Here is the input.
Amino acid sequence: MSDAREVARGDALAAAATLERLYEEEAPRLLRYFRRRTGNCPSAADMVQDAFLRLASIGRASEVANPGAYLQRIARNLVIDRVRADRLSRRVYVPLEDQDAPAPATQEDGMIAADLLRLYEQVVAELPERTRTIFLLQRAEGMTYRQIAERLGVPLWTVEHHMKRAIAHIDRSFEKI
Here is the structure.
């Protein structure tokens, strides 16, 4: 077993030497990359360390075919993670009990709503009787077209026709204001 331990120890030393050489070659480039992407110098140095920590944690960093490209991919992922974390930290959470209650409607809002309701009632009153009846059964009573057809003893297409007429009339009337 001592031979296996020695081989493992030799592999670990070789991996450490490879990682150290890679650090000397790639760390300055990664530092510039992180500074450009984050605009934060102290944070950039930490991110270089994080990139190499991730590379070392895969276990067999010496077997990576192109360690520079692999490090660059790790660096991009770290920048993405940092952006996500920054977005989350900027969110402001306000407990429901701390929120302001909605402002009550102003008198002007009430007057506008009353005028619109009055106009709506007037436009509906202008509809032919059968069209108005079908429209009110659907909108005010909540009946389906099929229920209206059965109640009035008319075909379904008649209900559809009168609803189209009513909606078109109301739409035209409100376009004028």
